[in-house]
Amino acid sequence: MERMLKDRIAIVTGSGRGIGRATALLFAREGARVVVSDLDAAPAKETVEDIRENGGEAIACVGDVTAPGFAEGLVKAALDKWGSLHIIVNNAGFTWDNLVHKMSDEQWDKILDVHLNAPFRIIRAATPLFVDAAKKEMENGGRAVARKIINISSIAGVSGNLGQANYSSAKAGVIGLTKTMCKEWARYNVQSNCVAFGFIDTRLTQDREKGISVEAAGHKIAVGVPEKVRQGFIQMIPMGRPGTPEEAANALLFFASPLSDYVSGQLLVVGGGFSM
Fold first, then answer.
1. What is the predicted pLDDT for the residue at 204?
2. How far apart, in whole angstroms, are the C-alpha atoms of residue 116 and residue 109?
3. Distance from CA of residue 168 to its chain's centroid?
4. 262 is catalytic
């Protein structure tokens, strides 16, 4: 059977760990050439090496997706290496929780920057490789190649979540961005869709007492969930367990593949039966 992403070129942000890593590995197995983007060099390199060891093609693009010029550099990396781009997965992010009356402007701004502003900038930077390329294809008498925007939201972006005004707002905003891109770029055969994840087993959902942290905005930010809260979330999942990064990646593969060539502007909730 032919691989679903044969000859496709994909950018996956936040692909050094978790859902992003699982997605990059899956896309590569399905034939995609992958730009592995991550804040940290070591996990990005590991993902690239794993892809290459299994016969795939990948390069790393290390840096902060919110940094000035990073979006343009990320798209340029795909162009310089392979001359094109077909799939964008805006996955990078982290949480920095606090109750509204305790949340600083910095906490608010940084989370909106990474989860909403960065996807917008990356999509905008891809205009020449999505819109301009499609125009040339149509001018030559054919239909434009299907290209894909896949934005990552969260159940928190649909229903809100205690202590996550910043994260919930950003994830709600990315749904609006997704639906707008569907309307603006549909005529260029670009499908824009969004996946809202529930409780997926990554470092962001581990027991906070394990001391896992991320370096961002000049801070060492503790991530994870207090164990009692974590168990409460799990009990709310009809399937009775968190999802795996690999299960999460499967949903992204659908939106990246030809199976979704007539599906756009949609929000898919991947939450083990959890509904809002």
1. 77
2. 10
3. 16
4. no
Q: Helical H runs in 83-226?
A: 105-112, 118-125, 127, 133-139, 155-159, 165-185
Report residue 63 as tokens: 């840096």
Instruction: Note the pLDDT of residue 214.
Output: 73
Q: Which of these is catalytic: 94, 130, 167, 197?
A: 167
Q: What six digits make up the tokens of 235?
A: 């009990």
Helix (H, G, I), strand (E, B) or coil at 166: helix
**Burial of 203 (C-beta count, 10 Å sphere; 0-12/13-18/19+):** middle
Residue 209 has pLDDT above 70, yes or no: no
Residue type, 209: E
Strand partners, 213: 222
Q: Is the pLDDT of residue 133 over 90?
A: yes
Q: Which two tokens stand for residue 117?
A: 């502003």
Rounded CA-CA distance 159/194 in Å is 15
Structure tokens at 34: 């992958």
Helix axes 70-82, 118-125, angle to 10 degrees: 40
18-29 and 245-256 helices cross at what angle (nearest 10)?
Answer: 50
Average pLDDT score over the chain = 93
Q: Please report the pLDDT score of residue 203 as a whole number.
A: 80
| pLDDT tens digits for range 51-96 | 999 999 999 999 999 999 999 999 999 999 999 999 999 999 999 9
pLDDT over threshold 90, residue 141 = no
In sequence order, the β-bridge partners of residue 12 are: 36, 89
And the tokens for 134?
A: 């499609």
How many beta carbons lie within 10 A of that of residue 182, not counting itself? 19
